[in-house]
Inverse folding.
């Protein structure tokens, strides 16, 4: 099908829906690298006009990546819930934006709608949204998950404590972990990116993090972020695996480049459920994504990078994850060039993830070759906090000394809580107060009263 | 600062010795204390300058010639830094004029093609490339036939594939400035590719990263690289099929032990 529109006497034509979507996207270096971005600002707006008039239903019959050749497309189409879709099935993309912003789109209505939406519909409507729309629609969505604590309640913000170390040194990891806990961070997960893929080293890291959690009876979960096949082997060998981690992407070919298939993820999901280590819930998966991963694997099939990203969420939601994290600025300036592009992408990812019913958080981050700095991170932090994001990252001083990029710090989480009045996961907050790390109001207490610090002899033994 | 009164210090500052991470920073309300804000800002400034500073090719060429290397120069097709950052595909291809010049000027009978690329940190290259090549030569047999060392600007890793193909080399070795982190603005990465030619995948290379005095010192990196080069030539491959087992090599009798990192 050919798409066309006439604006001010100029005719704009597009080969298919895939081209409309790509050209309707905000300018983004990755789409230009893929040679699919709009050539002019007017062409971009023309594509948005066309998209606004496209019925949502069109996405159910015109696949951007063919059904026959891609298992993510098959998963999206085969799992589509027509009944849930019914309330908006008569709308165009433009009408859908109006509906999402209206009072009719309540939290309950959006929760019920999620299984009826496909990633392409969600990506399409986000392309017609301004940043404030992405904030206000996401704010209405609520996705709550549980393992040893409850994450995603309205008015709450969780933090993934990321205690990375350049050589996986156990004492170094323990020191960063304790630093984060003493700043009241870690309710989303204590999640480490290891340098090593040695089973022995991974096992030692899992045991050490588990020891911290057990010793201090912390209502949180740990995760060592390694390939799903490694985690499966570790679990079989009896290592204390709380959550199963995997990076995923939005096309079959990109996932194959990560060494994953939906079947492998289903196997891992079943294995993690069988471990039965949660106390308040059964959400056992942790996924990471990020715009540009499909293109960097040469597996984007001419589909714009934001739509590819949202397709990854459709894969994720099958496994009812505890957390899904868009690592927004990590991939570099050839995909997201500067602070403006990173901020826009973070807001899109969050809103689209929430609309699909996912407990999405964001690694608000940048590398040093991107045109971005800590001020850009502050902007996105405040925007996502306002939009009701489930979790952000907590890294000592915002500087990851292993992955060599900058993210958000334990201090940033304190700032956001204080400024927007956001609370921690309730079980974790109660623990912090028991340990006298925070006071009754959730503010950091003076170190002198701190029971975690008082147990210095116990701390000294960690990681040895 | 003259007075730290509004800053709440962290009594666990001694843990800093366990990790280079920025922990126990104290706080001013919810915020970073001024001294850490300035330290972080300085580290970011160093990393930014490392990315945007042009490589002093004359100085590097002089240092290499002093070590009796032949030197050639080349540029990628990325004409400036902005293009380089947005278009990694152009950074992987030689400028056509330079490619022609190299093709004409060079004999095609070397074992090892050496390329030094500025990459994302010219600082890393300026500091560590010449010492690294000196250390490498000491680890290899004297009869090894090297190409001229090609100093390439606006270069990505895969540029060495095209250079190696031009020279008909059995192996290409790319020394390139890594993406700088705040605590490491000058890390050198080394990539080894057997039978280099355009279109090689990253899975067909071996990589040694974080080469700098605070990471993997040049002598230790040279030992590792020489081991990988010998094994690569013996087995006829690089990449996922060639695991770095150079650590085991020191256990075999009759081989010199490498200096230990750190």
């Amino acid at each position: 099908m050919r798409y066309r529109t006439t604006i001010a006497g100029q005719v704009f034509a597009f080969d298919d829906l895939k081209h409309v979507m790509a050209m309707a996207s905000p300018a983004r270096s990755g789409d230009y690298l893929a040679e699919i971005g709009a050539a002019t600002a007017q062409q971009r707006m023309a594509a948005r006009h066309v998209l606004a008039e496209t019925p949502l239903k069109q996405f159910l019959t015109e696949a951007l990546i063919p059904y026959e050749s891609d298992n993510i497309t098959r998963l999206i189409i085969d799992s589509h819930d027509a009944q849930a879709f019914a309330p908006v099935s008569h709308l165009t993309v433009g009408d859908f934006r109006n509906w999402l912003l209206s009072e009719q789109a309540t939290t309950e209505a959006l929760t019920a709608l999620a299984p009826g939406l496909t990633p392409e519909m969600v990506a399409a409507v986000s392309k017609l949204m301004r940043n404030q729309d992405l904030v206000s629609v996401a704010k209405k969505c609520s996705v709550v998950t549980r393992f040893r604590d409850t994450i995603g309640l309205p008015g709450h913000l969780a933090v993934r404590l990321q205690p990375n170390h350049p050589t996986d040194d156990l004492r170094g990891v323990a020191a960063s972990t304790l630093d984060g806990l003493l700043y009241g961070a870690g309710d989303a997960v204590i999640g480490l990116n290891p340098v090593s893929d040695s089973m022995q080293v991974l096992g030692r890291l899992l045991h050490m993090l588990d020891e911290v959690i057990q010793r201090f009876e912390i209502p949180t979960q740990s995760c060592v972020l390694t390939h799903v096949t490694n985690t499966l082997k570790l679990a079989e060998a009896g290592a204390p695996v709380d959550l199963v981690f995997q990076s995923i992407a939005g096309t079959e070919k990109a996932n194959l480049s990560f060494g994953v298939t939906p079947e492998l993820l289903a196997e891992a999901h079943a294995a993690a459920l069988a471990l039965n280590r949660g106390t308040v819930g059964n959400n056992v998966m942790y996924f990471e994504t990020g715009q540009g991963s499909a293109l960097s694997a040469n597996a984007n099939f001419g589909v714009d990078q934001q739509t590819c990203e949202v397709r990854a969420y459709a894969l994720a939601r099958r496994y009812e994850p505890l957390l899904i994290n868009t690592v927004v600025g990590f991939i570099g300036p050839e995909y997201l060039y500067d602070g403006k592009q990173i901020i826009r992408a973070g807001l899109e990812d969050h809103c689209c993830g929430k609309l699909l019913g996912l407990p999405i958080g964001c690694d608000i981050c940048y590398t040093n070759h991107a045109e971005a700095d800590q001020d850009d991170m502050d902007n996105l932090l405040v925007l996502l906090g306002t939009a009701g994001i489930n979790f952000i990252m907590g890294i000592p001083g915002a500087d990851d000394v292993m992955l060599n990029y900058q993210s958000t710090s334990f201090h940033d989480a304190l700032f956001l809580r204080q400024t927007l009045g956001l609370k921690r996961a309730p079980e974790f907050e109660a623990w912090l107060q028991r340990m006298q790390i925070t006071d009754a109001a959730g503010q950091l207490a003076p170190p002198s009263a701190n029971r975690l610090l008082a147990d210095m002899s116990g701390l000294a033994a960690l990681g040895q | 600062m003259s007075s730290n009164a509004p800053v709440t210090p962290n009594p666990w500052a001694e843990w800093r010795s366990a990790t280079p991470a920025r922990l126990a920073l104290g706080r001013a309300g919810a915020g970073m204390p001024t001294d850490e804000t300035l330290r972080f800002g300085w580290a970011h400034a160093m990393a930014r300058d490392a990315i945007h500073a042009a490589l002093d090719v004359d100085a590097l060429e002089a240092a290499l010639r002093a070590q009796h290397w032949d030197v050639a120069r080349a540029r990628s097709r990325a004409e400036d830094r902005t293009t380089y950052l947005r278009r990694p595909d152009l950074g992987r291809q030689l400028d056509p004029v330079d490619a022609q010049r190299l093709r004409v000027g060079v004999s095609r009978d070397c074992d090892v093609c050496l390329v030094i690329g500025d990459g994302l940190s010219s600082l890393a290259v300026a500091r560590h490339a010449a010492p690294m090549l000196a250390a490498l030569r000491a680890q290899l047999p004297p009869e090894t036939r090297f190409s001229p060392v090609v100093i390439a600007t606006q270069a990505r890793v895969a540029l060495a594939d095209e250079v190696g193909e031009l020279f008909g080399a059995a192996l290409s070795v790319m020394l390139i400035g890594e993406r700088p982190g705040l605590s490491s603005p000058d890390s050198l990465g080394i990539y080894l590719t057997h039978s280099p030619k355009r279109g090689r995948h990253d899975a067909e290379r071996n990589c040694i990263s974080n080469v700098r005095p605070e990471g993997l010192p040049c002598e230790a990196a040279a030992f590792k690289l020489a081991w990988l080069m010998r094994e690569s030539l013996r087995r006829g491959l690089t990449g996922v099929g060639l695991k770095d087992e150079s650590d085991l090599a020191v256990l075999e009798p009759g081989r010199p032990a490498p200096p230990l990192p750190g």
User: Anything to note?
Assistant: The radius of gyration of chain B is 21 Å. The beta strands of chain B are 71-75, 112-117, 149-153, 171-177, 188-194, 205-211.
